[in-house]
Amino acid sequence: PRCGCNRYSFIVNWTYPSARSTTSSSRFDALNARLPVETVTGWLALADPARSNRYERGYTGAIDWTEPRFIGQFWEPNEHNLPRLPGLVAHELHHLIRLRVFPWDMHMTTVADYIVLEGTAEAYAASLFGEDAVGYFITEFDPDEFETARQVQYPPQCAPMSRSTRSYIIT
Question: Helices (DSSP H) in 16-84: which residue ranges?
Fold first, then answer.
């Protein structure tokens, strides 16, 4: 397909062999005409634990906003986070596809938009690999923390994001 999902399927087969890789690439078939991307590049990197975010449990992922590529970083590979590698790849691929089909301006995007972006990426990863493959931000969120989140959240959910607002989501 145009979006390079066959190469993504190779990555998924390498990390998690199954028919799920075929399912993952076929889910984007309807969007191929709208995607200006032929190849998606992904990297897996080992990071320095001393320079990494202690709250992210030894791994994180990110996309490049300008090019169709993503990275998965592990600084403390272990039995908790390594099984989440397929979910990380699916999550970041979802961001790449969604933000090319529905582009946004980070200065006009709201906190609510960002929460939906992260939630749909995690839902996509869970639909392919199960709840055990998604990040702890989703599976281990204590319902009592919702009230704290509502109190800390400023500006309100409908206000456009800024660098300071984005830090509420990331940290």
Answer: 20-26
21-49 pLDDT, tens digit per residue, is: 455 667 777 777 777 677 778 888 999 99
**Largest separation between any pair of C-alpha atoms in the chain:** 45
Confidence of residue 106 (pLDDT cuts 50, 70, 90): confident
The reported pTM is 0.76
Question: 148-168 pLDDT, tens per residue?
Answer: 766 665 555 556 665 555 555
Per the CB < 8 A criterion, the answer to whether 48 and 35 are in contact is no
Cα-based angle 40, 41, 45 (whole degrees, multiple of 5): 145
Locate the DSSP E strands across the chain. 41-46, 59-63, 69-74
Q: How far apart are CA 132 and CA 81, in angstroms?
A: 10
78 secondary structure, DSSP code: -
Beta strand extents in 31-160 (DSSP E only): 41-46, 59-63, 69-74
The CA-to-CA distance between both ends of the chain, in Å, stands at 36
Cis peptide before 143 (omega within 30 of 0): no
Distance CA 55, CA 57 (A): 6
